[in-house]
Amino acid sequence: MKIYGITGWKNSGKTGLMERLVSEFVKRGFSVSTIKHAHHSFDVDRSGKDSHRHRVAGASEVLLASRNRFALMHELRAEDEPSLEVLLAKLSPVDLVLIEGFKRDRHPKIETFRAVTGTELIATNDPTIHAVASDVAMALDRPVFDLDDTAAIANFIQSEVAL
């Protein structure tokens, strides 16, 4: 599987770009999966539902299945957060895995940047960021794309991973 990351600070446009890239690559005939890192506790289960009750009772894993999809929830309890490598191994094979977040990991990435956030560019000190997608023009030592130019960004990623 080929992997490529989209990273950036909060509200920089990561999720919107991810969504557009998934659609673009699927339209091009590629199979795509995604991994998203959350910096906070989250729950995909609802209180009172059977699967939630199983987890609260102490189940290490709960697999919820229907004819349309299945979801496997794994409670870490006292375990360390799994590495990106461990998470990638859990995915079924696809042509491309797009990874949102995981700033500190060493895979190639595009940084999303919006001037309104007032944040510093991560790319200036991170060689794993191979390009920037921004809402403002800037001069860098790597490609800079318009944040809304999904096709050009997809072409760059496709070339980078040799899809």
Q: What labels describe this entry?
A:
six-stranded parallel sheet; Rossmann fold; 8 strands; alpha/beta; globular; 163 residues; 25% strand
Q: Structural class per helix/strand content?
A: alpha/beta
Give the count of structural domains: 1
Largest sheet: 6 strands, parallel
**Spatial strand arrangement across the major sheet:** 2-5-1-6-7-8
| CATH architectural group | 3-Layer(aba) Sandwich
Quote the average pLDDT: 92
Number of E strands: 8
What share of residues are in beta strands?
A: 15-25%
- Distance separating the two termini: 10 Å
**What is the general shape?**
globular
Low-confidence runs: none
The arrangement of helices and strands along the chain is EHEHEEHEEEEH
**Helix segment tally:** 4
The CATH topology is given as Rossmann fold
Q: CATH superfamily membership, which one?
A: P-loop containing nucleotide triphosphate hydrolases
CATH class label = Alpha Beta
**Helix content percent band:** 10-25%
Radius of gyration: 18 Å
